[in-house]
Each structure stands twice: as structure tokens, then as C-alpha cells.
Amino acid sequence: MEIDLCVAMAGGNLNVYAPLFFESLYRNCDTSELSVHVVEKGGIVPPDRNEENWNVNLPFEYYVRGVGDNVHNYLLRKQAEVSTPFTIYEKHDPSEFFSKAGPGPGGWDLGEDYSNTLNWMMDNCGSNKWIIFCHLDMIFLKDIITRLRSEMLDHVGVFGVYAHCWAINREAYYKVGTRFNTVNSLWLLPTPKINGYDYVMRSGNDKRCNPLPDGAKRLYGFDILELIEVIMMANGWHCDVNGEQPYRSMVDHMCSGHGYVPEVVANGQEARRQHWMNLLGVQKV
To answer: Which InterPro entries is this protein grouped with (predicted)?
Structure first.
């Protein structure tokens, strides 16, 4: 069974994460049935993180195109080296990934950048029934690909290690039509218990949430994957995406994001990068 594996390249330390990701993938996993798709996005260089709302609705000028010649050339070498499909997409125009669902001009938003990227890859990166999404800042410790492949059944919609390495059924994705949209600022408002219901969900922008009535509860979600997972399950698809999967230990995810982690975490990530570079014999590119 042929499977698409997609990874988007954005953020910092790509000269380390790229070789760690691909060398550990091809060394520790069975890639014989994989078609690998690499999307070169570029990255966000935000204003000072101490400024208010530094990571919300950044304009286009904060986007740095490309991944650098050193990283791009490494990908070209890897493409020539492997015997299975390896496709590179140079998406240096950020507009397709920026938030543009509202009435105003588009801008960069952390959640919508990721969801729009996933939607774009679903539409443009391969056509196999199953597609695996991975974060680039991740090392494959064991063969998680074979483990994921064993659970790719017709009645399954999406499953895997949340925000690390997970697989989705393209048939389920297109049938439910929700796509990877995110919704936040949701509230549960008390109802008069009509028909046995205790709460109704409203957007925080709804005038019925201003002022908030007594007993209102703020709702966590819906983050990437959460909304589509709910809709899939409501339509009978089996889904199991969480961070506590038994095969979570098969990968090491740095969770480096777009540079918004505090200094102590950044130092820890650097130590982990050095550890894996030494262990795998991988050099920066």
C-alpha cells in the first residue's frame, strides 16, 4: 500500500532539523511504500516577543521566503539518493497559508498557518488513500511508519500521536468536508434546560456573550485536528489522536515552534539536538 508522508519546512534551525528528520526516517523506518513530500515554506521573523500580541495577525513583511540554499541543496541531494518518490515544493509565496477567512486583509496567525498548510498538502501532495503528517523538528527513534501502516483500516478516519506524527484517511477527510479548520474563543452558556440540555455553545464574538451570564464556562478548543475529529466520529469514523499513544516513544519531537519558547526551553532543545546529532552522526548542512 502506497502512503504519502508530508512535512512542511518552516521556522528556525532548519539546517539541523532537516538532516536529523530525514536521516533518522530513512535509517530507522521502512520507507519502501512511502512517497515523501517536502514543502519549503520559509518562516516568520516576528517582532520582539515582549510586544503585545506579537504572534497574532502579523503582516506579510514578517515572512522570510525559502529555507536557505544550504537546506534546499541538502534536500536535492537526498532526493537523488533515495530510490522512492521524494518531491520538493518551493512555496515561497506565503499568501496561501495566511489567514484570509475574515473581512479584513490576510495576516499570519499561528493556528491558521498550520491548518491552511495541512489543507494545502491534502490537496496537492500526492493522491494516496492515506497520508502521514509529521513535524520537521522530530527524530524517528523506531519504525513508527510500520506501526501506523498496521492501523490504516477502511473504517478509520484519523489516528496517531497528536501534533507529532499522525495519519489521516483522505476518503474520510473529503467526505466530512470540515477540513483542518480551527475555532477558539468558545463559551458554554446555561440554557433553561430545554429538552434536557444544560448548555449551548456560542462564539465569544456573539453578542449573547456580552455580558457573560452567570454560570458560563469557557471551552477549550477546537485546535488543529480536534474539530475534524469530532465531525468524523459523529459520522461513524473511528478516530484516535492523542499525545499518550503507546508508540509516542517511537519519536522525539522538539516542539520548537516558531521561536516562542522561553530561553530555558530553547537551551534544552539545543542540548537535545546536539545529543541526536552526535548519536546519529549527523552534521549541520
So the answer is: Nucleotide-diphossugar_trans (IPR029044)
Categorise residue 193: left if φ over 0, alpha if ψ from -120 to 50, beta otherwise. left
How many domains, in total, are found in the chain? 2
Single-letter amino acid code for the residue at 167: A
Model confidence, pTM: 0.89
Spell out the residues 6+ positions from residue 48 whose beta carbon is closer than 8 angstroms to its own. Answer: 54
* Most confident segment among 58-72, 94-108, 223-237: 223-237
DSSP string of 123-167, one letter each residue = HHS---SEEEEE-SSEEE-S-HHHHHHTT--TTEEEEEETTTEEE
| 57 and 99 housed in the same domain | yes
Contact indicator for 3, 33 with CB cutoff of 8 Å: yes
Q: Is residue 285 assigned to a domain?
A: no
Task: Please state, in angstroms and rounded to a whole number, the distance separating the CA atoms of residues 229 and 273.
Answer: 32
Q: Which uninterrupted H or E stretch holds 251?
A: strand 251-253
145 falls within a domain: yes
Residues 13 and 132 in one domain: yes
Task: Quickly state the pLDDT bin for 168 (edges 50, 70, 90).
Answer: very high
Reported as a single tens digit per residue, the pLDDT across 59-93 is: 566 667 788 899 999 999 999 999 999 999 998 87
Domain that holds residue 206: 185-220
Does residue 235 share a domain with residue 198?
no
